[in-house]
Design goal:
globular; Aminoglycoside 3'-phosphotransferase, Chain: A, domain 2; about 325 residues; 10 strands; about 45% helix; single chain; Phosphorylase Kinase, domain 1; three-stranded antiparallel β-sheet; 2 domains
Length: about 325
């Protein structure tokens, strides 16, 4: 497939009859992702974002991924937008042959929640909204499971999540390999609802005017809801290990707000602490490590999360945000 860029996208849009040749258009390459080409398309009447799935991800480890995920994402955006329209942008276009989708751009005053967290800007309302919204999605998926079979997708979730975050780390850690395998078995054998699959601070946009938007639906699948919860909390654990002492309490409170909001609508999985610990560990030892932890912080996180994983299932997830762990 031909990959688009700033120089070729306008002709592509004209050929697709999405743009008139006489229209004034501004194209901007957006950054932050490793799995897609992402371009902002601005005309007089529209403000859109184009995504094209890459066959090989932009990370240090060789990591191939089926570009069919663009089709999965387009279908998921349409569904999630129908459930929570105030938190999901509207889908405008899908080219299933070139693996291109176009969606409405979120308000330009929005900022990436990950960036805000790393800069010490803590928005407790965002954590609360995310817990409430995720529970709403999971409840919808459970209630409508039989009508969502077109999201039964094993290969993409294996390529993009199980292999780089679970199996890759298990191979490096023979002592906890059997503990990790139990978590893999849970993900593969207990499929009960619709799972976003990339519920991460980097995919959360917080608008100054109030709304919270959730992006990146390409790993949506029928699976186990524990993954979505753990994926967000695992990132918060990494940021907790990076935070100075005067910010630890704030991050712990955000994790608590997210969990409490979710738990007000749906019970927490018993294994949540273990999945959270593993995903945090994978952000150091996996195929896509974070770039904001120093060597000492990485070492402390590795020791702590491996200790958690060696313990029996059933730990309180908020114990991962205990200052003594650092």
């Amino acid at each position: 497939m031909k990959l688009l860029d700033e120089n070729t996208v306008v002709d592509y849009l004209i050929n697709q009859k999405l743009l008139d040749a006489s229209e004034q258009v501004t194209v901007e390459q957006l950054t932050g992702g490793v799995s897609n080409t992402v371009l902002a398309i601005k005309t007089k009447d529209s403000d859109l974002v184009l995504k094209q799935a890459l066959p090989v991800l932009k990370v240090a480890q060789h990591w191939e991924a089926d570009p069919r995920r663009a089709i999965v994402e387009a279908n998921a955006i349409g569904l999630y937008h129908s459930i929570t329209p105030s938190h999901v942008p509207r889908l405008a276009f899908l080219d299933a042959e070139a693996f291109v989708l176009i969606m409405q751009r979120v308000p330009r005053d929005s900022s990436v929640w990950k960036t805000n967290l790393l800069s010490g800007k803590f928005q407790f309302n965002v954590a609360e909204v995310l817990g409430h919204t995720l529970a709403q999605w999971h409840l919808y998926g459970e209630s409508n499971f039989s009508q969502l079979q077109h999201f039964r997708e094993d290969e993409l979730f294996e390529q993009l999540r199980v292999d780089p975050f679970y199996r890759f780390v298990a191979i490096k850690n023979p002592k906890i390999q059997s503990d990790i395998q139990l978590l893999i078995d849970e993900l593969e054998q207990q499929r009960i609802t619709l799972v976003h699959g990339d519920f991460s601070p980097k995919n959360i946009m917080a608008s100054n005017s109030g709304p919270v938007y959730i992006l990146d639906y390409e790993v949506t699948h029928l699976g186990n809801p524990v993954f979505d919860l753990a994926f967000l909390l695992g990132h918060l654990v990494c940021k907790f290990f990076r935070a100075p002492k005067d910010q630890e309490k704030d991050i712990a409170e955000m994790a608590s707000s997210f969990i409490t909001s979710y738990k007000s609508k749906r019970d927490l999985p018993l294994s949540l602490a273990h999945h959270t610990a593993l995903i945090a560990l994978a952000r150091v030892e996996g195929k896509s490590p974070v770039d904001y932890l120093g060597l000492s912080q990485q070492n402390k996180l590795q020791i702590f999360t491996k200790e958690v994983l060696s313990n029996p299932i059933g730990l309180d997830t908020l114990t991962l945000f205990d200052s003594d762990a650092k």
